[in-house]
Amino acid sequence: MENGSAGVVRGSRPAIKENKVTVVLGAQWGDEGKGKVVDMLATEADLVCRCQGGNNAGHTVVVDHQEYDFHLLPSGIINPKCKSVIGNGVVVHLPGLFDELEKNETKGLVGWQDRLLISDRAHLVFDFHQEVDGLQELEKGKLSLGTTKKGIGPAYSSKASRNGIRIADLLGDFLTFQEKFTTLVKSYQKMFPNLIVNIEEELNHYKLYAERIRPLVVETVSYIHSALRAGKTILVEGANAAMLDIDFGTYPYVTSSNCSIGGVCTGLGLPPSTIGEVVGVVKAYTTRVGDGPFPTELTNEIGGLLQIRGGEIGVTTRRKRRCGWLDIPLLKYTSMVNGYTVLCITKLDILDVFEELKLCIGYKKDGETLPYFPSSVAELGSVEVEYATMPGWETSITGIRNFSNLPTNAKSYVEKIQDLVGVPGMHFFMGDFLLRISYLHISSHTLFFILFTIFS
């Protein structure tokens, strides 16, 4: 199977808004295929930026039959013509970053040294942050959150506690860095007496990391604004997804950053007035990794079939993703928060084999339809799901290049989503996913993409 190698796009002929930032965000619980969308749009961009998260994210991109896995790197790093920016809102684990670069170099990634830029304001994730992440999960026992144990939460905690260490600190006076590092380690050892850190050894490592990373570090806020003033096209790649946002997601089963539209502003130093199109990426069904409520989850053979056909294995965690039917109230809620101007449906063809499909169209509590998306995981976990049942198309849509040639039931499924989520009427254009990269843009008004994989 070659994910993302074919597609049908429903929408008007696009064009990135001049001097406006285009943003790609996950509309569900992550793993929607944002990396593929970013990689397509990056061919038209001068800058591709990450604004939040760390190497807890996972994007897989296939180019010329070669699969690349990205965790901290922006997916646009593949494009030799654009710069990739890791913004101030990202937390950076330097050993993981260099390991990721080396692994992708063996797969054919070249010239990244001239394209990768890292904010001097970005905070560092240390190995002891990762150890603390695991210790905190152990302490919670049955109440554990199922984190990736990449140290992201503890690093953001250090940042919020104002004892975090930024890349600028690493590149400044090393004695000051050494003092800050030692103080931070000792503060965690007070909380976790069994935490063992070889401070001298770690400091020696970071002396080397400082010199390796120095050529890549810039003050990204001024850099990005200068690019905007120069008329450059800028694309922002959101990590994780709206339902993992620390404020708007299924708290506490969330990540430790704002992966909704607000994180773009704070994570890159961009005012809202600079944002143009906001692309919400959503699978034709729903998945999530880790614990937490999931109203449409299928724990039966249908969920298992979705998992197998969709290749639903986490890029970062290698855990099987939980699968369920598409959740319209969830999409309406994340659209409310993020203000999508574009919806992008991925993996439509995974549904090829089903005799009938279901769409969650509402949540009920005590027999009454809820007029809001529940804030509490207890309430969300207890809702009664209202479904609309639709007939499947039970035939392969692989190779179809025109929306009008899709099976009637496949078109009806897409149009139903359009009606329920509230996307206005649209036109069509289509083409092979990889060939289509060269002319796919983002339009100046709302449109609707359909991207799907080849399954064989």
General description of the model:
- With 456 residues, the chain is of the alpha/beta class.
- The protein has 2 domains: 2-118 and 219-454, Adenylosuccinate Synthetase, subunit A, domain 3 (Adenylosuccinate Synthetase, Chain A, domain 3, Alpha-Beta Complex); 123-216, Adenylosuccinate Synthetase, subunit A, domain 2 (Orthogonal Bundle).
- It is built from 14 helices and 21 strands.
- The strands form 5 sheets. An 11-stranded mixed beta sheet has the order 10-8-6-3-11-2-12-16-21-1-20, sandwiched between helices. Strands 15, 17, 18 and 19 form a 4-stranded mixed beta sheet that branches.
- Mean pLDDT is 86; it is low at 1-8, 12-17, 424-448 and 452-456.
